[in-house]
Amino acid sequence: xSRRNKLLKFAEILAFPNVFExxxxxxxxxxxxxxxxxxxxxxxxxNTNYFKNNNPIxxxxxxxxxxxxxxxxxMYPDRNFIGVDIKGNRIWRGAKTALEEKLDNVAFLRTRxxxxxxxxxxxxxSEIWITFPDPFLNKESRxxxxxxxxxxxxxxxxxxxxxxxxxxSAELYEYTVEASxxxxxxxEMIYQNADIYKDKLILKELELKTxxxxxxxxxxxxxxxxxxxxx
Length: 231
Ligand SMILES: C[S@@+](CC[C@H](N)C(=O)[O-])C[C@H]1O[C@@H](n2cnc3c(N)ncnc32)[C@H](O)[C@@H]1O
Prior knowledge:
CATH superfamily of the largest domain: Vaccinia Virus protein VP39
Radius of gyration: 17 Å
Strand content: 25-35%
CATH topology of the largest domain: Rossmann fold
Bound molecules: S-adenosylmethionine
Shape: globular
Number of strands: 10
Strand order of the largest sheet: 3-2-1-6-5-4-7-8-10-9
CATH architecture of the largest domain: 3-Layer(aba) Sandwich
Oligomer: single chain
Structural class: alpha/beta
Distance between the termini: 41 Å
Largest sheet: 10 strands, mixed
Order of helices and strands: HEEEHEHEHEEHEHEHE
């Protein structure tokens, strides 16, 4: 994408009512801005102030263009979905689709996931999808299923909340499955599959395909899936 195109999207996204952006990306006390840069306090307030209902909230982490956020929101109008990514030009796509389709059960949050506990209160989230995250094979601490990240999610995920990981990376898949064995006090493996499309899918949600998943499938890669429960 050209630099001009990116800048246009950054400008447009500022006026989107369904996008919230971090202020202070590397600050110990980041805050959020909403439509047209207005400061907002969303922690503990997503349902009251934005969705205006009491429906359960699902997060899509590393959402990119928000394919799961949008797909799940169409599938479950009585649930709320928030896509989270640091890249505004990617979030733009999902946010624009949500506005065009009037999906009022969708929001996007542009932040580093490392800071996410600043924006959700205890028990505010019911479920997490992590879709095709960068596997960071040379930097364990950045993997979104590394233990410190799971402990971060525990701060706002309801007890026994489900975390889904869908990835083309056999290494990230194996790393996540193996990490669960000595850490049963934190997370319990419910289901794992190293090649989901060779079997009957266990969830209709798995039929949704992200931008990156389509690329990996075109290159003949296997798609893996892990479902675990955080205690
Ligand atoms: C490979 S892309 C996958 C995007 C999308 N889920 C898909 O499947 O099409 C990984 C995404 O994770 C985002 N990402 C990686 N690390 C992140 C972090 N620590 N915080 C927020 N976003 C992150 C990147 O900006 C990128 O959009």
